[in-house]
Amino acid sequence: MATKNGGFVALLLLLSFLLSSPLPARCDAPLPVNVWPKPTSMSWAEPHMAVRVSSSFHVVAPSGNAHLLSAARRYAALLLAERYRPLVTPAVNVTAGGAGAGAGAAGRGAELGYLTLAVSDLHAPLQHGVDESYALEILPAGAAATVTAATAWGAMRGLETFSQLAWWCGRERAVLVAAGVRIEDRPLYPHRGLMLDTGRTYFPVADILRTIDAMAANKMNVFHWHITDSQSFPLELPSEPALAEKGSYGDGMRYTVDDLVSCAGEFWLPDASDWPSRLAAEPGAGQLNPLEPKTYQVMSNVINDVTSLFPDGFYHAGADEVTPGCWNADPSIQRYLARGGTLSRLLEKFVGAAHPLIVSRNRTAVYWEDVLLDQAVNVTASAIPPETTILQTWNNGGNNTRLIVRAGYRAIVSSASFYYLDCGHGDFAGNDSAYDDPRSDYGTSGGSWCGPYKTWQRVYDYDVAGGLTAEEARLVVGGEVAMWTEQVDAAVLDGRVWPRASAMAEALWSGNRDATGRKRYAEATDRLTDWRHRMVGRGVRAEPIQPLWCRNRPGMCNLVR
């Protein structure tokens, strides 16, 4: 009898404890919600708590920066409309109340009514190297939430993080946000970009804007718009309207400015048995002729117009894959070579004229690595001084990065072996007899020059400063994943880019290693699955990385238990 009474008393004590504790969420699961990219430092007090978000939730932002005020309204609306349901529901207790938390509806407990932004410098311009750091604190009982940042741009990073700490709990019929959270965060690299090629494929503005929105959500900060290439010139420029009129895609519109361009419109591979004689790196021949005086008039107009249209501090001047065969086939250049000229001096003539113009517009010139490292056609360092030049590397992995920084240049890393998102989908050249052999793409190349396909794990694991000394590594400003579009259009854009670009975003924001120095791709798998799920809910058609069965059974899809 005493045993029974003791058990009854213990049961009453247990019930009393449960009733006096924060109300347990009726939506529960073993893991809390995560943020992508993973913050530099994040703590979530245990037991994990969450607070309901008020239906009148708003962001209190300082006046004086229109972009920040717009972001505050945008993120408040995003939170109020949030219907993201985690694949594994966070195991949290929903706070029952707290001083200053705000009264909820009858019986619903505390609600978070607002988030406060505190910014030191509202006028810092959005340029390379701007301070993106922030701190986010949501008090344990949901009494207050604050983002503190040096600049408006850091505050926006904090807003994004805050939005990822929220989710919809159907059983509660409410948006919940984590409480008892403290985050301090800043990026490892100041340049975290995506290059999108619209020269080969036209993308509607809506698709470009959706891509930029997804970049912001991933805390990426550079949209490298490869607007033009030899295939098309879709950008309308006030001083050179003929470029877009004749060069953009559309009925009766082709890039045929014959008084300006060498080998324009000619077949790119006149002799398939003589690869060095090709007129272009791929179909779509045409290179500017540096001996033609009008080239420099047009070049000057383009530089002036583009720097007026875009306020960014970088101007990408290209200069990659100069094809000797094209220039060698031009009669005026043949005469120049016969008089003792060289193709390298020809390129330097052009670069030597363009570079000062770019710098005079208060821009840093960015070139592909070829301008310095190409074995056949290159320029001397005097034409591209390191103080006003950044080189973007894409060949030979870390080896070319090392060559660039040892020459004193800052480097943007876009290694084709790790960051080219178009690789591994075969080739687009027609009537390729290689496919007569059924074993033609049995190897790892996937039928493309830069194969195999770059998995998110390969992207995530790449160290852009790997193998460099500390001094050399300081010259690496960051990296860009590249989406070349010979076989990409708006129908497949999202899935080709996301979530693989997300993998680079985290590696360049907070690194790809844990506190012990070990690569953390295994730990990142579940988090990236969750983030991909949230991106899809935001309208980004990101491709999956695992079956949902794996996420619902943590560890069961691993190679090693």
UniProtKB/TrEMBL annotation:
It is an enzyme of class 3 (hydrolase). InterPro entries: Beta_hexosaminidase_sua/sub, GH, Glyco_hydro_20_cat, Hex-like_dom2, HEX_eukaryotic_N. It catalyses: Hydrolysis of terminal non-reducing N-acetyl-D-hexosamine residues in N-acetyl-beta-D-hexosaminides. Residues 35-165 form the Beta-hexosaminidase eukaryotic type N-terminal domain. One of its GO terms (cellular component) is membrane. GO terms for biological process: carbohydrate metabolic process; glycosaminoglycan metabolic process. Its EC number is 3.2.1.52. Keywords: Glycoprotein, Glycosidase, Hydrolase, Signal. It comes from the Eukaryota. PANTHER family: BETA-HEXOSAMINIDASE. The keyword Protease does not apply. GO terms for molecular function: beta-N-acetylhexosaminidase activity. Residues 189-253, 271-511 form the Glycoside hydrolase family 20 catalytic domain. Residues 1-27 form the signal peptide. Belongs to the glycosyl hydrolase 20 family. The keyword Glycoprotein applies. The active site is at 321 (proton donor). This is Beta-hexosaminidase.
